[in-house]
């Protein structure tokens, strides 16, 4: 019987990787926030913006080339808006548009979907989006340098082939002015803290990734971005923790997966999807004799979306879910002087849960193996 072997997951950060992907190890270029992926089967791309505003509203806007959970072979542009007005429930609405209304530059971030626009130059971005009675207009100005880990590509490799998932945080932290509308609720030029990143890939992510946690926060003048990703069994169920910490002067103290530990062991089922969700996410970065500890404590659910249309709470491994929660983030420094609170504040974080979606290549190999064993 032929033995099935697991693949591996690695960050593309070797000298030959930078040559292959055509990016500079020392700086991020304008084209990196432009169109990076084509329209072929499995290929997808999105541009994301969110903001936490001074009036305590939360706003998020996404432009997709295709529904990211199951990207087919045809361009199917989507705009999604989430707004939580102060003291109100969060509202999310999504709209599909004709492929002919989509345009995106390969030279810079210049994306239009019908009358919606997402444009910027790594320093200043202007975003306009409207879906039914939700509308957002934002001007985002970068405060700290763009963030790219290695070439920006996470590679999922095995003996047969390779796939990638790309990520660029063009604006890890920015100042923002946002005007938004939710039905009759209207706010104009509200200041706040903003963020923009860009993702792309070449295959349905459920074949590669079982789940990820992602969150960001600005606390005590520090910027935190934290990711915990678990690959599918076909890639060894590999777990990767990526942690970014920027100090008050805009200097990167942590940038990647070196010397980082994650604890999300305190879990309970989400009330709609049944997915096990950590009640607290703890990322610990060790820098010599000093540790920085970022904790995200789960609060109210802001968004609970089934990726396939319906939740299966009795069998969450069988279907996907996208969950977003309000959170309190605290950042502490631990050193010879003891434990010091550097800052605390409200933010959000997400759990993207694909569940145990088997890789078709392993299913094919299993079928071949089973047939061969019966013929023996």
Largest sheet: 13 strands, antiparallel
If classified by CATH, what would the architecture of the largest domain be? Beta Barrel
Order of helices and strands: EHEEEEEEEEEEEEEEEEEEEEEEEH
Proportion of helical residues: under 10%
Query: What is the C-level CATH assignment of the largest domain?
Result: Mainly Beta
Number of helices: 2
- What structural class do you assign from the helix and strand content? mainly beta
Overall number of strands:
24
Instruction: Write out the CATH superfamily name of the largest domain.
Output: AttH-like domain
Rg is 21 Å
By CATH, the topology of the largest domain is AttH-like fold
Query: For the residues shown, what is the average pLDDT?
Result: 92
Cα distance spanning the termini: 9 Å
Poorly predicted segments:
359-376
Oligomer: single chain
**Number of domains in the coordinates?**
2
Shape: globular
Break the fold down into its secondary structure elements and pairings.
Blueprint: E1 8-11, H1 15-21, E2 44-53, E3 58-64, E4 78-84, E5 91-96, E6 102-104, E7 109-113, E8 116-120, E9 124-131, E10 134-142, E11 153-157, E12 162-182, E13 185-201, E14 209-219, E15 222-231, E16 239-246, E17 252-256, E18 260-263, E19 267-269, E20 276-278, E21 280-287, E22 290-306, E23 321-335, E24 338-353, H2 360-375
Antiparallel strand pairs: 1-11, 2-3, 2-13, 3-4, 4-5, 6-7, 7-8, 8-9, 9-10, 10-12, 11-12, 12-13, 14-15, 14-24, 15-16, 16-17, 18-21, 19-20, 21-22, 22-23, 23-24
């Amino acid at each position: 019987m032929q033995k099935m072997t697991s693949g591996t997951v690695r960050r593309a950060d070797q000298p030959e990787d930078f040559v292959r992907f055509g990016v500079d190890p020392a700086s991020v270029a304008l084209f990196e926030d432009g169109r990076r992926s084509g329209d072929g089967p499995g290929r997808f791309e999105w541009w994301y913006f969110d903001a936490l505003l001074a009036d305590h509203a939360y706003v998020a806007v996404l432009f997709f080339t295709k529904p990211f959970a199951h990207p087919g072979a045809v361009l199917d542009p989507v705009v999604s808006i989430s707004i939580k007005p102060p003291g109100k429930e969060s509202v999310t609405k999504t709209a599909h548009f004709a492929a002919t209304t989509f345009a995106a530059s390969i030279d810079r971030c210049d994306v239009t979907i019908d009358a919606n626009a997402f444009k910027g130059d790594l320093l200043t971005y202007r975003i306009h989006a409207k879906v039914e009675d939700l509308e957002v207009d934002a001007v985002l100005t970068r405060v700290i340098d763009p963030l790219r880990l290695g070439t920006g590509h996470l590679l999922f490799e095995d003996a047969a082939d390779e796939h990638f998932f790309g990520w660029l945080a063009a604006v890890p932290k920015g100042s923002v002015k946002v005007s938004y509308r939710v039905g009759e609720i209207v706010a104009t030029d509200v200041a706040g803290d903003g963020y923009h990143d860009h993702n792309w890939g070449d295959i349905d992510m459920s074949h590669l990734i079982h789940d990820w946690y992602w969150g960001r926060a600005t606390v005590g003048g520090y910027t935190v971005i934290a990711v915990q990703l678990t690959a599918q069994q076909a890639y060894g169920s590999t777990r990767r923790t990526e942690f970014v910490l920027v100090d008050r002067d805009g200097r990167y103290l942590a940038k990647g997966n070196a010397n980082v530990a994650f604890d999300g062991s305190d879990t309970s089922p989400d009330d709609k999807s049944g997915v096990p969700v950590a009640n607290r996410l703890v990322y610990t970065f060790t820098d010599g004799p000093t540790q920085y500890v970022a904790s995200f404590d789960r609060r109210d659910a802001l968004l609970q979306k089934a990726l396939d249309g319906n939740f299966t709470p009795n069998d969450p491994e069988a279907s996907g879910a996208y969950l977003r929660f309000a959170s309190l983030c605290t950042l502490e420094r631990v050193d010879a002087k003891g434990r010091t609170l550097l800052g605390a504040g409200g933010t959000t974080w997400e759990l993207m849960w694909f569940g145990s979606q088997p890789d078709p290549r392993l299913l094919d190999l299993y079928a071949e193996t089973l047939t061969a064993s019966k013929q023996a």
